[in-house]
Amino acid sequence: MTGGNSGAGILGGLLLAAMLAGCGGGSSKEVPLDTLSAEQIYKRGEFTLEQEGKPESAIRYFAEVERLYPYSEWARRALIMQAFTYHQGKNYEDARAAAQRFLDYYPGDEEAAYAKYLMALSYYDQIDEVGRDQGLTFQALQALREVIEEYPNSEYARSAILKFDLAFDHLAAKEMEIGRYYLKKGHYTSAINRFRVVVQDFQTTTHTAEALHRLVEAYLALGFTDEAQTAGAILGHNYQSSPFYDDSYKLLTGRGLSMEAKGDSWLSKVYRQVIKGEWL
């Protein structure tokens, strides 16, 4: 009886060790991956990513699934997981490459929308890392627009719309940042050029009211009162509840000027279009 129990214990221990090795943990000797099934390798990648938090190691398993079992269902899953895992590890260029491969191989797959969204996200998540270089922001906007237009009924389209608006606002914020710098330094023409971009190209963002106020400041500094008054007129019509309206009102009335459209500048055209609806 004792010997039988001992043999059963040894056998149980061996089985447990084998199971741990099959799950990717506990074994000091790595089992050759080409001896495992596609599912086993894939699940090792999942375990390494989710339980151990090692995206770089997980990538190896997902890539091996694709290499060893290139036409299998698990290869398809492994490819989208490569894109996801690269993104998790902030390896954005490789994330885009893997997502693009997925779209090339499986354009009609139900995960295609997610692959496209990951590509957009890889640009979007770099926006705050690029300083004043707005190239990636424009690429993010383009990629997000593609998600919205190509997969309008997907859950990713809704998220893409929100991120598109934020990225668009980010571009306007960068123009404002540079314009304020020029204004502070007394480079009024350069400042006006930046604020003009916000008013003309980013009217739907949260920065338009301030851009109009800064135009009032810059044009008054240059002595261009018609333009300053027109900027004030647009501000007063559309953003009267904004604190920037109060600031512009004080600036203009303090010089005996009113907030009304005057002259025939680019701001007058904006006024006619936005306020009076005259687009021609």
Structural overview:
The chain has 280 residues and is an all-alpha fold. The protein has a domain at 186-280. The chain contains 13 helices and no strands. Helix 2 (38-50) packs parallel to helix 4 (73-88) and helix 11 (225-238) packs antiparallel against helix 12 (243-253). The longest helix is centred in the middle third of the chain and has 31 residues, at 155-185.
At a glance:
One of its GO terms (cellular component) is cell outer membrane. This is Outer membrane protein assembly factor BamD. With 280 residues, the protein is mainly α.
What is the helix fraction of residues, given as a range?
A: over 70%
Distance between the termini: 101 Å
H/E element order: HHHHHHHHHHHHH
Number of strand segments? 0
What is the overall pLDDT average?
A: 87
The general outline is elongated
Segments where pLDDT lies below 50 for 5+ residues?
1-28
Count of helical regions: 13
Question: How many strands, which pairing sense, and closed or not: the largest β-sheet?
Answer: none
Structural class: mainly alpha
Radius of gyration: 30 Å
How much strand content do the residues show?
under 5%
GO cellular component, one term: cell outer membrane
Domain Outer membrane lipoprotein BamD-like: 37-231
Keywords: Cell outer membrane, Membrane, Signal
Protein name: Outer membrane protein assembly factor BamD
